[in-house]
Amino acid sequence: MKLTTVAEVIAEQLARDPLRDFFSFWDAVSESDIDALREALDSATREEDIQQFLQTHPKYLIQHLGGGHGRWIIPKQRLGAQHVTDFMIGERDSMGFRWQAVELESPLAKMFTKSGNPSAALTHAIRQIQDWRMWLAANQNYAARDRGEDGLGLSEIHPDVGGLIIMGRRATESEETRRLRRQMGRDAKIEIHTFDYLLESLIGRVRSLEVHRKMLDD
Predict the structure, then answer these.
(1) Is residue 1 assigned to a domain?
(2) Predicted confidence (pLDDT) per residue in 73-110, tens digit
(3) Looking at the predicted structure, is the pLDDT value of residue 161 above 80?
(4) Is 4 a member of any domain?
(5) Closest by alpha carbon to 106, among 168, 163, 170?
(6) Start-to-end Cα distance in the chain
(7) Which of 15, 87, 89, 146 is the most exposed place for a label (fewest CB within 10 A)?
(8) What residue numbers bound the domain in which 102 lies?
(9) In what order do the strands lie in the sheet with 190-193?
(10) Closest among 169, 179, 172 to 114, alpha carbons compared
(11) Helix (H, G, I), strand (E, B), or coil: what is residue 18?
């Protein structure tokens, strides 16, 4: 039978997707989501607070992604017996899959000490992603293999997987520490952001969707 609606097309695609349980309808966001994320960030006092919130509302983690063929969010992805990512997020475009391994730290954590050295929390986060990359270098085939074939189902993942560290708040940064974290991120090939990055990405997405809907209405 011929599919006649977008919803039917998506349902048919998801039925064949081995990662369908982790698929996210990324554009189902509105003004109320901005308020919810802002309140969660302002009230969180521990990493566990924001971890649990994002597991319940995973779409807030992927608003910076742009893959037009889908987005996926896998919480607590195990990499062998020793490693567990906070999240593995993926997108797919015309070039294929791209993945990011996400490490969260507390929204109250500082990235640098008063003397300008990387904090223990930031050093730990970077090491985590480096450990995950080393594991992938030794187990890439297993990680990329379909789940139906006893793999992890991380299609096309590679050992130099993108890393994303999210910690702290922008209000605690200075221009100098902001420059330092950007340089560290470039050196380690890891994106390092405060939690405000998630909020700003969500705000940008909601505003973009509002403009798009208004253009369709006009």
Answers:
(1) no
(2) 999 999 999 999 999 999 998 888 999 999 999 999 99
(3) yes
(4) no
(5) 168
(6) 33
(7) 15
(8) 22-217
(9) 71-75, 87-93, 96-104, 162-166, 190-193
(10) 172
(11) coil
Tokens of 92: 């797919």
Domains held by the chain: number = 1
Task: For the chain, give the percent of residues with pLDDT over 90.
Answer: 75
**pLDDT exceeds 50 at position 185:** yes
Whose tokens are 């085939």? That residue is 141
Helices within the chain (DSSP H only): 6-15, 31-43, 47-56, 120-144, 175-188, 196-217
Cα separation, 103 vs 127, in Å, equals: 10
Find where tokens 């991120």 sit. Answer: 185
Residue 119 is assigned to a structural domain of this protein: yes
DSSP 74: E
What tokens were used for 169? 């708040």
The pLDDT value given to residue 1: 46
Please provide residue 41's backbone torsions phi and psi, each rounded to the nearest 5 degrees. Answer: -70, -40
